Amino acid sequence: MCAHILVAEDNLNQAELVRRYLEHDGHSVVVVHDGRAAIDETRRRNPDLLVLDVMMPLVDGIDVIRAVRTESDVPIVLLTARSTEDDVLLGFDLGADDYITKPFRPRQMVARVRTILRRTGRARETSATVLKVGDLMVDPIRHEVRINDELVSLTPAEFRLLAKMAAQPQRVFTREQLLEDGFITARTVDVHMMKLRRKIERDPRRPERLLTVYGIGYKLV
């Protein structure tokens, strides 16, 4: 299964640990570090699950739950220290789905997340999992491409090409193989590749991701 998960945790090391384990389990993960950002990103991204630290700057986790529950039924898992047990009980009253006490074992956290995703019907089949090539992420379900978590706007044809190549990074695709996706001429493929480079490369004139293999075609690295 896979899901889109928003992690709100102000401790950078803790946030990175959670992100790494959830991504290893096949999920796409976005991390924010304060409560205000958690509310904004929940509204913007409509995640499948929110992992929420109770003690955060700007807006604490309890107030995040209050704000989110006025407009979303997204499952919420609280991360909390033992000293904040009263906050956990309040969190349940406000609509949290589960809580994990710090310090926690990452694999247990992942298992709890899986359970909630199954129970709430938010899990997706792994056959439609997010494709990752370095810091480039292609999401076939949401039809989104992100680089370093920044959304990249692509046309349907550009997305189709990039998704095909992201499913098999390092593979060299001939123009004929890419023409199978509905493009009329080899020149059409070349034009879309040029446009893709403008959107995903730091310097389209010196591509680092979408490379030409002269005499053959293209590969994504």
From TrEMBL:
Residues 128-221 bind DNA. The keyword Iron does not apply. The keyword Transcription regulation applies. It comes from the Bacteria. Signal peptide: none annotated. SUPFAM superfamilies: CheY-like (SSF52172). The modification 4-aspartylphosphate is found at D53. Keywords: DNA-binding, Phosphoprotein, Transcription, Transcription regulation, Two-component regulatory system. Residues 4-117 form the Response regulatory domain. PROSITE patterns: OMPR_PHOB, RESPONSE_REGULATORY. Residues 128-221 form the OmpR/PhoB-type domain. PANTHER family: REGULATOR OF RPOS, TWO-COMPONENT RESPONSE REGULATOR ORR33. This is Response regulator transcription factor. It comes from Lentzea miocenica.
